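tool_call: predict_structure(chain=1)
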Amino acid sequence: MHLTANVAQPVGHGTRPGAAVITSLEFLAFTLGQEEYGIDIQKVQELRGYDTVTRIANAPDFIKGVVNLRGVIVPIIDMRIKFNLGTPVYDQFTVVIILNIAGRTMGMVVDSVSDVITLSAEQVKPAPEMGAALDTDYLIGLGTLDDRMLILVDIDRLMSSGEIGLIEKIAA
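tool_result:
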């Protein structure tokens, strides 16, 4: 798992094969419904308010469409639709997180963004195996900070799953 320069060598006890031990990471915290999530801050290019998108015919519902961002056509993915978390409501708190994943620029619509948090390895617990809306293959783990718990998403793995081929076709 390629996260940052602060990643130790993989270990075998209590981790998925190929998983890395995290020494310290910064995550952008955001909400979807009632849950708080985190993604690696190094993948975030910028934050924008939700704006009108150009819809693409025959695209899955979670792909809202595309926007022209300073001459770059950027696909916009609504994570609430992607994770089956109910009907999204677009308001003044709705944020589009512009990501740079594997050299591709894409946008991710979330309900709101709260802050950037730094977690140590001790604050990241393995994700439990359960039938959830989010496949645990896309999780780094659960981050705990005081009374908060963040679902830490491996955004590279999530965005380069089956959807990225479709995203590349839309962006082309």
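agent: Confidence is low (pLDDT under 50) at residues 1-18. Proceeding to next step.
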